[in-house]
Amino acid sequence: MMGAAVGLEQAGIPLTVFDPAAPLAACRLCGAIFQTPYHRELQKIRRYGQGLPDPPDLLAKVLDLGNEWRKKHTERNHTQSEIDAFTQTGWAFTPEAANVLAPFGIIPMGNLHPDLISAMMEAPRKPDLRLLEGGE
Ligand SMILES: [Zn+2]
Predict the structure, then answer these.
(1) Could you tell me the distance, in angstroms and rounded to a whole number, from the CA of residue 130 to the centre of ligand 1?
(2) Is 4 within the bounds of a domain?
(3) The total number of structural domains that make up the chain
(4) Region 22-39 average pLDDT
(5) How far does residue 52's CA lie from ligand 1's centre (Å)?
(6) CA 88 – ligand 1 centroid, Å
(7) Structural domain for 123, as ranges
(8) 72-85 residue pLDDT tens
């Protein structure tokens, strides 16, 4: 469910702040997004590593950080009934999440509900970095 966010560097968002090609975690309900310097470092190694395998310790750290963030984010921000109601829709994201995530290049693929299309069409072209969690 990734698009290709292009032009972020030209828009003043360097890859050291957010790398659209790097691993990340995001919330399908509210659009909160998480990417740390470790995530970006892994992508940098992949980009310049000439096909070498991912460093296992860094890959494990990135996976652990993302899983930990998902668990804490969900516990702090969403109720089980909210999660259950969303699951019933069968949608990839809520319209609110689609509106936040589209500028980061994260878009649902496949059949799209008109509410999701509208949310992405109305989204700002530049991502709001205040919504990016994970430190610098
Ligand atoms: Zn959320």
Answers:
(1) 15
(2) no
(3) 1
(4) 94
(5) 34
(6) 17
(7) 25-133
(8) 999 999 999 999 99
Q: Answer whether residue 1 shows pLDDT above 60.
A: no
**In a domain? residue 16:** no
CB atoms within 10 A of CB 112: 17
- Conformation bin of residue 78: beta by default, left when phi > 0, alpha when psi is -120 to 50: beta
Please name which of 49, 27, 48 lies closest in space to residue 106, comparing C-alpha atoms: 27
Residues 6+ apart with CB under 8 A from 52: 45
CA of 49 to the centre of ligand 1 (A): 33
CA of 90 to the centre of ligand 1 (A): 17
pLDDT average, residue stretch 93-97: 93
- Please say whether the beta carbons of 98 and 107 come within 8 A: yes
Q: Count other Cβ atoms within 10 Å, centred on residue 96.
A: 14
